[in-house]
Design a protein that fits this description.
Radius of gyration: 20 Å
Largest sheet: 5 strands, antiparallel
Helix content: 25-40%
Distance between the termini: 23 Å
Number of helices: 8
Strand order of the largest sheet: 1-2-9-4-7
Strand content: 15-25%
Oligomer: single chain
Shape: globular
Length: 260
């Protein structure tokens, strides 16, 4: 099934794109007379494929995307999740082909900026250049945080760091920071954190046993944000005695695992 065809937008879309990138423009400033293209993607569809020609940069207008690389044996390694205001396809700036593929985790839309237009905007509109640098910097911070998650030995700690990261992003976007609707599957999360997806289910159960979170399918309520943040600070499983006691008392079926 193909994505919804692209449509050309009025030049007034440029200020919205800048706002998505976190840049405020003086109302009296003249902006380039450049209509943007919007592309809408249905859940489960690809925005671009790994190895495909890289011809555009994409600014996420709505929805969530998964970025991944597929190994020769078919294993899908997840590298990140892009949301409103994030950039996709930046590998087009350094090569001819996309190094990763992206797929929409929900119905989504992006602004499509062809490379010639991208370079023209960056040269003629300093605000756009600042916004791109801000988005690229944010992506680098996310990579640093991923490295921090991977540094934890215990899978429960990795998951705790992931949930704290999501909570902070929700808070930054003006959304409730203690109620998370996870669009990604446990397999996606496991790939992202470098553990088996079965381990993710057990880790959710362990965090629930400690009364840090409450899990119902893909709905996660953070019951104790400060406690979860404290738990996430350990590189190994912290507070071993209380953790062991809590997990030992966990009855099968008490926590609904994430959908695969």
């Amino acid at each position: 099934m193909n994505s919804i065809p692209m449509r050309e937008l009025h030049p007034g879309a440029v200020p919205e794109m800048l706002a998505l990138l976190g840049v405020c423009v003086d109302p009296g400033q003249k902006l380039p007379d450049m209509p943007l293209a919007e592309r809408r993607i249905r859940a489960g569809q690809s925005l671009f494929f790994e190895g495909a020609p890289a011809t555009s940069i994409y600014v996420v207008r709505a929805g969530t995307f998964k970025a991944f690389h597929t190994a020769e044996d078919g294993y899908e390694q997840v590298f990140g999740f892009a949301r409103r205001g994030d950039l996709l396809g930046c590998d087009a700036l350094s090569g001819d082909c996309h190094l990763m593929g992206t797929v929409a985790l929900e119905d989504a839309s992006v602004y499509v900026v062809a490379l010639p237009d991208f370079y023209a905007l960056a040269q003629s509109l300093p605000a756009f250049h600042r916004g791109v640098m801000r988005a690229v910097s944010g992506a680098m911070v996310d990579l640093t945080q991923l490295a921090d998650m991977m540094a934890a030995v215990a899978s429960e700690v990795r998951l705790a760091r992931f949930l704290v990261h999501l909570s902070r992003r929700m808070s930054t976007g003006g959304q409730p920071s203690t109620f998370l609707h996870l669009l990604m599957t446990r397999r996606d999360i496991g790939s992202y954190l470098g553990v088996a997806h079965e381990t993710i289910s057990r880790s959710f159960a362990a965090l629930a046993a400690l009364r840090l979170v409450k899990v119902n399918q893909r709905e996660v309520e953070i019951l104790d944000l400060a406690g979860l943040q404290g738990f996430a600070q350990g590189t190994r499983t912290p507070v071993k005695a209380s953790f062991g006691t809590a997990v030992a008392g966990l009855r099968p079926g008490r926590v609904l695992a994430l959908a695969a």
